[in-house]
Amino acid sequence: MNNIRHQHLIFDMDDTLIYCNKYFNLILDEFITLLSGWFKEYDLAMDDIRQKQIEIDVAGVHVVGFASEHFPASLVETYRHFSRLYGRPLDDSEERQLKLLGSSVYEKEVEPYPGMVNTLESLRLAGHTLYLYTGGETAIQQRKIDQMKLSSFFGERIFIRQHKNITALEEIITTQLLPRQDTWMIGNSLRSDVQPALQASLNTIYIKQELEWAYDIVQLQTGSEQSFHTVSHLTDVPDTIHQHLNIYDNEQKRTWG
């Protein structure tokens, strides 16, 4: 490990280091059950509720980014859509109930992915510099960071942004003076993590999760000069990086004789 070339590793947080989407899905299941009961006489299908919420949710994130009020608002807007569609009167108490339900997702206890501490510790011990780059509101994301004691790994190298895109990533690369050939983006979102990293010519590791948010799924635009890897588990990250570096260094030795 001591001979491994020093790298700069930028980690996403939600659904890369800690669980996130599963809590939103639990709230959505409760919301869909609630709405199907309210609209029982109209035979409103659960799948129709789910698809409309996804449509409203994804469209809104493009506009407001990862704002905390957006998810509760998407539940209310889905409710209003079907109320208008079927001519069912809107009810203020029902809307308040939906807002509270949506907001409750941010009160869930934080849970790390298996091997989070060991993965970060092994990379730090290997001599690499770690950075945290997460999307959302500062207060909510900082609470998660504090609960997981992530500053012990990332120090002051923590970046919270309302929008995660190529502009935000380039700002981090520029201000931190990161060498692109020795910098990695590690995350679960094709849209927010992988695509911007490929555009920025960073090495990229995509951690594919079973529960993917519809917003995260995009068709990648290829063409990056840097490496792109897909893994299934966070614990696969250190070996993926070090194997890549060994292959690269061996190729360079052959090239230069």
Report on the structure:
It is a single chain. The protein has helices spanning 21-38, 46-64, 70-86, 92-103, 116-125, 138-147, 151-154, 166-175, 190-199, 237-255, and strands at residues 8-11, 129-135, 158-161, 183-187, 203-207, 228-231. It is an alpha/beta fold. The protein folds into 2 domains: 8-18 and 113-255, HAD superfamily/HAD-like (Rossmann fold); 21-107, Orthogonal Bundle (DNA polymerase, domain 1), CATH 1.10.150. A 6-stranded parallel sheet has the order 3-2-1-4-5-6, sandwiched between helices. α2 (46-64) packs across α3 (70-86) and α3 runs antiparallel to α4 (92-103).
Question: How do you describe this structure in short?
Answer:
The protein contains ten helices and six strands; from the N terminus they run βαααααβααβαβαββα.
Order of helices and strands: EHHHHHEHHEHEHEEH
Question: What number of structural domains do the residues give?
Answer: 2
Low-confidence stretches: none
C-alpha-based Rg, rounded? 21 Å
**What's the β-strand tally?**
6
Q: What portion of residues belong to β-strands?
A: 5-15%
The named CATH superfamily of the largest domain: HAD superfamily/HAD-like
Strand order of the largest sheet: 3-2-1-4-5-6
Total count of helical runs of at least 4 residues: 10
CATH architecture annotation of the largest domain: 3-Layer(aba) Sandwich
What overall geometry do the principal axes of the alpha carbons give? elongated
- The CATH C-level name of the largest domain is Alpha Beta
Primary descriptors:
DNA polymerase, domain 1; alpha/beta; 257 residues; single chain; 6 strands
